[in-house]
Structure formats: structure tokens, C-alpha cells
Predict the 3D structure of the following.
Amino acid sequence: MNKQLTNNYDVIIIGAGAAGLMAAVSASSIGKKCILLEKNKIPGKKLLVTGKGRCNITNSADIEEIIRNFPGNGKFLYSTLNNFSNKDLLDFLHEYGLKTKLERGGRIFPVSDRAGDVVKTFMKAVERYNIPIKYNTSVKDLIIQDQKITGVTTQTGETYYADSVIVATGGMSYPKTGSTGDGYALAKQAGHQVIAPQPALVPLYTKEKFVKDLMGLSLRNVGITFYGPNGKKIWSDFGEMLFTHFGISGPTVLTGSRIISEYQYKDCKMVIDLKPALDEKKLDARLLRDFEKYHNKQYKNALSDLLPSKMIPVFVELSEINPELIVNQITAEQRRAIGRLLKNFGLTVEKPASLNEAIVTKGGVNVKEINSSTMESNLVPGLFFAGEVIDIDGFTGGFNLTAAFSTGYTAGLYA
Ligand SMILES: Cc1cc2nc3c(=O)[nH]c(=O)nc-3n(C[C@H](O)[C@H](O)[C@H](O)COP(=O)(O)OP(=O)(O)OC[C@H]3O[C@@H](n4cnc5c(N)ncnc54)[C@H](O)[C@@H]3O)c2cc1C
């Protein structure tokens, strides 16, 4: 049989992740003959790990607010979000039976708290339109003839033909999920500029080695402030963070990491306010009460009402007060210094963790070379991009998936 006839499609979609699945469904819904080529043996491998396995699908914010949550080229998303918004996405998922719920900060999750249910929902749509998915198939090259796309070839030498190809290969973060940056090489084959991929929303290494002793400790309801070069205050928030064996992570740190990436992480400090609800005066009164309660105890045994136990030895050492000092011998000056440390627990940023640990990739295919209304390449007709392969990146809160689904939908519609 003629291979060209058997492997002939209207649209080839490379990557069965968030953007690729959505693109395939959208193209098929308007009657296009599609095929999804996926290098893994299952669809949506990254989707399965999103939101700690719960998948923060999208956010309830309006379009303006969504765009504000993209420090990386948010304005590029105006058209596509107007074409397919967070509300359209939810209508689509609900139509296929997925129940969703709203949580703090507008975050939307499946009611079941299972990311797997989001993938299953997409697979229902894939089945409805009989979209073939070829697993264990890694696309190696684009076929471009006379400056127009005509198909792709795979690692194993197979050729697939189509008038349109959608590159939905993701970024470079969490490469174990399949997104190893292949899309950048494909984009370069088509003459596209690729902005150097860098980790974004990433844990941070700190210079202080004591973080190792705090590994696994999660702090809730703390104030976090990042300072840049020359002690300039860059960003402040209130929320949750986590100590790791090399530094810090958790929601507020991930967001802060994206903001300080603009300073190349150089000379950046993070200060934790361990008692954000108490101003200096109230905190001193609180310390007085605690020290009265524990007046016959040693200092190191008098902080249990104030700090998590794991943190006490580190805190005591940083305060430079003799741990064995009996509490009633602590001077007013020492007590005020303890208060200051509670409000200003400082850490020095050394560097970001690698792309392997980043939630998203900053960088990717230059947005200036993509038509933001259609996702089509401005350089090669018939070539489309969708999802994280494009140089867009958003904060946590369901924004990155919103962009992947929306750009996927738009690419599918115009491909
Ligand atoms: C731990 C973690 C948690 C996250 N949690 C959230 C969250 O809760 N909410 C949120 O909005 N965002 C979250 N994100 C970000 C979000 O997952 C991504 O932005 C989103 O998945 C990008 O979608 P995509 O389709 O562009 O890429 P991916 O989802 O990465 O899909 C790309 C697909 O292409 C395939 N592929 C790659 N190269 C080839 C090739 N050459 N041939 C064939 N197939 C190929 C890959 O195997 C993969 O299946 C999280 C990310 C991580 C790492």
C-alpha cells in the first residue's frame, strides 16, 4: 500500500499533553482528520503530576487578570483567551462529565482531586472523535517543502503527511514527563528563534547550609519578602513555603523565584516574617508572656509555643544567645533581638534549581514569530505552536494550563 496515502492527515499534532490533546479535539470537532504523535506510552504524563496530583486545571480570574499572571509575554494570550477562555474550558470539561470545584485564589480543581480524571476526560473526547494516538512515537524532523509544511518524520524513520502540523511538545521542565525540549529543535528547523529556556517557578538554593536541618519543614501563614541588589524590596507575599535539603520551595517561593529571575537571582535575599500577624510591639508583649510562662526553663526549651520544634535549634543558634541561659536571665535587649529575628529570618539566594525541578520553562519559541490570533508560524505556513513550547510562562494558580488549553484550542481551530 502507498505509505503516503496511509499516513495522510489534515493535521498532525506532536505531543499528547495538555495543549496537544486540546488541539486534536478542537481540530477534529470541525471535521479535520487528525493524528496525535506522542513519545510516551501514555497521554498527559505531565498533566498527571500537576497540582501535586490534583491538577489545578485553570483559574476563575477574568481574562485581564489571567494575563497579569503571565510575567512571560502575557499579552500574547489576549486573542486566544478571547477565543477560548477559562470558562469555555470548564464548559468543555463539564460537557464530558468532569465535575470541578473552586478553591482559594480562584484555583479550580477536579472535585475528585485526581489529575487522572482530567486526562480521562480528554480521552473521552479523543474517543468521541476517533482521533488516533500513536504512542512511543518521537517526532524528529519537520518536512518543509517550498517554505510550507508537508509532514513530519519520526525517530524510527516513519513519515506522516499533513497540510498542518501543530507542535505541542511542551517546555523543558520535568523532562521525565516527556517534555525534553524537542519542540525547540523543530522550531529551529523552521527558522524560528528560540529564546533560551530557563527554569521558572523553581525551588531556590540558599547560601545558608542550616536549611538542611530544616528539610521537610513547611511553614504556613508566613510573610515572605524578596530583596534584590542593594537591598531593594522586590516582592512580598503571605502564604506557605517549604525547606528542602538545599534551600527553599513551596508556593510563595516558586512565585518569588520567577520575579527575582529578572535580576538573574544575583544578590537576592529572602526574609521570612514568622509572625506576620504581630507587629513589633505586640510580638514583644507575646514574648514577655511566653518567657513568664517558661521563666525557669532554659532558653532553648522556651520557644515551643512560638516555633515548630524542628526550627528551634536553628533559631536559637542564629539568635546568638546561650541556649542554656535560664529564661528569667534574658535581658530586654536580647528579647527584642529575638523579636527582630522572628520578623526577619533571612536567607540568601544562591541560585535556582535546574529545569528538572522547575514547574515551567521561561523562554521558548519567540512570540513575535507566531500569529497570536491563530498560533500559526509567521515563517512557515501550516506550522502551528501551542502550549509551553511558546515563550510564555505564568505564575502558579492554574494559569499555565489555561494557556496550554487555550493555545491548543486555537491552533486546532486554525490548523
Ligand atoms: C510538577 C508540576 C506541577 C504543575 N502543576 C500545574 C498546575 O497545577 N496548574 C497549571 O496550570 N500548571 C501546572 N504545571 C505546568 C503545566 O503542567 C504545563 O505548563 C503544561 O503541562 C504545558 O502543557 P503542554 O501541552 O504545552 O506540554 P506537556 O504537558 O509537557 O506536553 C507535551 C507532550 O509532548 C510530548 N512530546 C515532547 N516531545 C515530543 C516529540 N518529539 N514527539 C512526540 N511527542 C513529544 C511529551 O511527551 C508530552 O506528552 C505544572 C508543572 C509541573 C512540572
User: Anything to note?
Assistant: The CA atoms of residues 39 and 335 lie 60 Å apart. The pocket of flavin-adenine dinucleotide is lined by residues 14-20, 37-40, 45-47, 49-51, 55-56, 138-139, 168-170, 173-174, 177-179, 182, 359-360, 387-389, 398-401, 404 (CB under 6 Å).
